[in-house]
Amino acid sequence: MKKQYLLLTLMIISGASFAQLKPVFGFRAGVTSSGMRGDAINSLNNMLDFTKGKISSGSRTGFFAGGYAAIPLDETFSIEPGLYYTQKGMEFKGAIGFKGAEFLGANAKAKLNEQYIDMPIILKANLNGFQLFAGPQVSYLTSAQLRTTAGIFGINLLSYTTNATNQFNRWDAGVTGGIGYQFTNGINVTAAYDHGLTKIDANRNTNSYNRSVKVGIGVNF
Length: 221
Fold this sequence. Notes:
There is one protein chain. It is elongated, with a radius of gyration of 23 Å. An 8-stranded antiparallel barrel has the order 1-2-3-4-5-7-8-9. The longest helix is centred in the N-terminal third of the chain and has 19 residues, at 2-20. It contains 1 helix and 9 strands; from the N terminus they run H-E-E-E-E-E-E-E-E-E. A hairpin with a 4-residue loop joins strand 2 (55-72) and strand 3. The chain has one helix spanning 2-20; strands at 24-38, 55-72, 77-94, 108-127, 130-152, 155-163, 171-182, 187-196, 208-220. By secondary structure, the chain is mainly β.
């Protein structure tokens, strides 16, 4: 009888402890710095002629925002699925020769603006506020636009936007990971790196992959 009573007491204590570990929901937003690695320029050759002059590529600055749910596994570890709207892409600068208008290449720019829905599922460790996290991420491309501009002597001679969504793979699978800090008032800050593993072009013929750095601030509800 005493053993049964002790077992029942332990079960009640364990149940009470588990009940205290409730999911926490929150909202997070911040800035992104994204680009591509691999044969990124080749994936845009059907729209722009990059054969004339020197081309430099750079990252695109954007933002992300969305929600998450932190599901505790114990006092230290939790699973955190999320859903975020994220801006990605990259920029090209230099002597870009536009087909049929090569003379405009002196000060030409091309910016690829991509809109993604990111769906990460991360494992997070909370060490007295300091956080480490990593996990897989699936992303869906909702739209992609290529905006080209060119000018001479500070005069804008060309501004053109092309719908490039069909030129890219709709789905992207990758991994994400980073660090953060959870304050006692429910606010948290994070810095993460997204590493795409899926070829971004629609035909998957070029070795071009998404890369992105995210810095954000979140709040638990």
